[in-house]
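Holo model, citrulline. Inputs:
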Amino acid sequence: MTTAPRRALVRAPSPRLAQGLLTHLDRVPVDAELAVRQWSDYTRALTEAGWDTVEVPAAPECPDGVFVEDTVVMIGGTAVITSPGADERKPETMGTSVTVRALGYPTATLDAGTLDGGDVLKIGRTVYVGRTLRTSAEGIASLRRICEPLGHRVVAVPTTKVLHLKSAVTALPDGTVIGYEPLVDDPGFWPHFRPMPEEGGSHVVDLGEGRLLMAASAPRSAELIADLGFTPIPVDISEFEKLEGCVTCLSVRVRHAPDG
Ligand code: CIR
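Output:
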């Protein structure tokens, strides 16, 4: 029996990070040195939790390249390379594609529309996709054409209050969807929804064995999550939050052996 890999793709911050795109937030100064330290701490937290980090080649010319989640969606053992909705971010996918191929994963690409990985929330075999300024209806339909033969169903989720679906909601390991209600378009859409008291508390990265990577900016949410029986692992990502990034955006977990 082969054990499933536990790898996490990451990409080092660009020296141009402070020029990253903003949609819902006003620009405030970003401390580039602090961002690099925070990124190192983030990758160390992954490693300490048993995940091998794989660095996608740096893209110094891409301010938002560190948000590697937006460039690829893993559907089982297939890597779906995205079509980012912002033109400035389209060059980011090349390095990710090279990296997943080198790891042995077959890749698929969208045949129409745009889609950012931050809009894709997988819960079991259901793939929820935010319909946002970045992800078009055509992009969602295109992802559906890839996912259905792989045994995954795609459900579109209108998302207007934040950049990406996963800026609004993520899921606990038991499938409960968590989010900060003022920023969730329709909390009633989710069969099991639990509100969090802070915006940063909407985002968790499931590291396995009940451990959840969370932003340090959400201590009350972390307490609530600990009360639910999980183990929050806080990381300070303040410099990335200034650019509308959250704890999910900075990595892509690869949990299956390559398909085929
Ligand atoms: C952007 O606007 O694309 C970046 N400044 C932030 C991307 C954050 N990514 C994510 O939520 N998945």
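Residues 7-12+31-254 form a domain with the L-arginine/glycine Amidinotransferase; Chain A fold (CATH 3.75.10.10). The pocket of citrulline is lined by residues 20-21, 23, 64, 67, 69-70, 86, 89, 118, 163-164, 167, 243-246, 249 (CB under 6 Å).
Archived with the compound record.
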